[in-house]
Design brief:
Elements: E1 11-14, E2 25-29, E3 34-39, E4 47-51, H1 52-63
Antiparallel strand pairs: 1-2, 2-3, 3-4
Domain DUF397: 10-61
Region (Disordered): 1-21
Pfam families: DUF397
């Protein structure tokens, strides 16, 4: 059985590179074992849940240019 973490008091953060009106995602910090991610334009909408270690690997790969540039 998988339980969905309670996000009612979650602290959400988005990239400092984000600008107003941009297409951004926000991540909830301080949730054990998972990293919830949501669309910043729809804060009451659904969140995706990633294992914390998988999210960290994605962030690291992005920061080091592993995926190239668009």
């Amino acid at each position: 059985m998988t339980l969905t973490p309670d996000l009612s008091s979650a602290s959400w953060a988005k990239s400092s590179h984000s600008t107003d009106g941009g297409q951004c995602v926000e991540v909830a910090v301080g949730i054990p074992d998972v990293t919830p991610v949501r669309d910043s334009k729809d804060p009451s909408g659904p969140a995706l849940f990633f294992p914390a270690d998988a999210w960290q690997a994605f962030v690291t790969a992005t920061a080091t240019g592993e995926f190239g540039t668009a």
